[in-house]
Amino acid sequence: MELLFYFSISLIAILISCIIFSNSIEWLGARLNLSHGITGSLLAAVGTALPETIVPLVAIFWGISQENLVKVLKGEADTLNSVNQISMGAIIGAPFMLSTIAFFLIGFSSYLYFKSGRRKSNIINVDKTILERDLSFFLVSFSLGFLAIFLNHTFHVALAIVMMILYMVYLYRTIKEETKGKYKGEELEENLDPFFLTKFISNLKPTTFLIYFQLAFSLVLLLFSAHHFVEVIKEISHKLNFPVFIISLLLIPLATELPEKFNSWMWIRQKKDTLAVGNVSGALVFQSTFPVSIGLLFTSWHITSVISCLTFIFCLISAGIVLIASKKNKLNFKTFLLGGVFYLAYLVFIIFNCK
Description:
α4 (about 80-115) crosses α9, α4 runs antiparallel to α11 (about 275-285) and α4 runs parallel beside α13 (about 305-325). The protein has about 350 residues and is mainly α. The chain has 14 helices and no strands. The chain has one domain: NCX, central ion-binding region (A middle domain of Talin 1). Helix content is about 75%, strand content about 0%.
């Protein structure tokens, strides 16, 4: 019971810090007079993806000794066992959850609101420019991440640099397309939630200083809550005698991806399909580049089990199906529901192979 209590507290702290961070990012985007495309597809996507990036970094570097730091920098992190497995599980599990559970929730919510009459069609109306660009970048970058598990640390370093360049190219294309007016999404002001601190001080004005203060506070809270979350994950794995990689892959992203899942559900309800899908697809690009680069540089990035490889395969297939459906103008709730099928299939493999 004590372990469950600490797990719940650290999880709640992560979610709260993520909500505050996302709120700060949105207000910062508005204060800097950035458009909806930039703030939503870039800042918000990176903001909601921050916990999945912080957790592996904390697992690797929090309280690390000088001797172990040298091992990490040399690509010998596999000798640090649980730290290595937690980091890899969190990094690989994030895009897996997004391309399965998050896609499924988009399809399921669309189906429910279509049946209830809130939506007039079962078609997901998204800006194809955004979706197809995002998923194309994701399929390339995550495929490279999959290829890297069969290569040595020298290639890992090279591919990490490639990942960083890919994300820079993605940023450039996103900003360039934004300036050409290719985005068709809703205006930022229509979707801006109240400044978080005003929930406690009603007359408070969100000045630039307060926006940065709230942003810094959320980062500090996220850092410490992620540290305790990692420690709890180690304990859970030890108590259940279950592979720490699988525990990390299923539990950490399932918790830290909640903002994307919740936001997408609400935006489908509000018929803001571009926001709902773009929130997930933009996060997929970030998750498959920057965090994967961290994994390539500071973990062993070697997995040998079939179950672990299936994480990549199911993830890539699910995203590929959505991309193909978009190109053929057949993007409906059924396409996204398939993500749930891949997740259930993965759980079945785990149950029958980890007894």
